[in-house]
Amino acid sequence: MANEHILVVEDEEDILELLRYNLSKEGFRVTGVTSGEEALRSAKALLPDLVLLDLMLPGLDGLEICRRLKQDSRTHHIPVVMVTAKGEEADIVAGLELGADDYVTKPFSPRVLLARLRSVLRRRARTVPGDEEPISIHGIRLHPGRHEVTVNGKATDLTASEFRLLHLLARRPGWVFTRSQIVEGVHGNDYPVSDRSVDVQVVGLRKKLGPAGQFVETVRGVGYRLKE
User: Fold this and answer.
1) Looking at the structure, do residues 82 and 37 belong to the same domain, yes or no?
2) Which residues carry this modification: 4-aspartylphosphate (predicted)?
């Protein structure tokens, strides 16, 4: 992971220097900027391997920066990890829906932050399985073409919606999906399903997966993921 280039967007100079020090010590190349406008210019010019993005910034805020990065063909592939104040669940959900890859909350441990950044970089380095490619994880084998799921070799009967939900999570293990992303991924845009319905569907999927259901994890206030 050494020599990966991280663009840090943080308007508080002391925090920026702390991040620069800790990331550089671990072998990362670091560029630090203090405003949203600088962040967009630097991202387009440098094409870093990851953007560590504070949400509370002067001028353009972090959510708007994330939206613009993900809409630009030159930068949409760059992973974004948001830094938020504790308890800003609405901003976390909004950021993930805009395409952010993960988040950390202030105050944060440098060790935890480094682990989260490395995890995002590892996930992005992997090839995401194609829509028809079989997936095996945690004893679960999912075959999209055959619409079949087995758990530890035993066939499991899932509904069409449960199958699509499991496929969505299994294609990107470790990634957090918000409830609205799950609705869109499973049912399509503008489908009239409530957050509560998603929760009920996840409960049903866990039950059918048996012991493997424990790997479908709840991320409180945000959504769900399949454990890496």
Assistant:
1) yes
2) 54
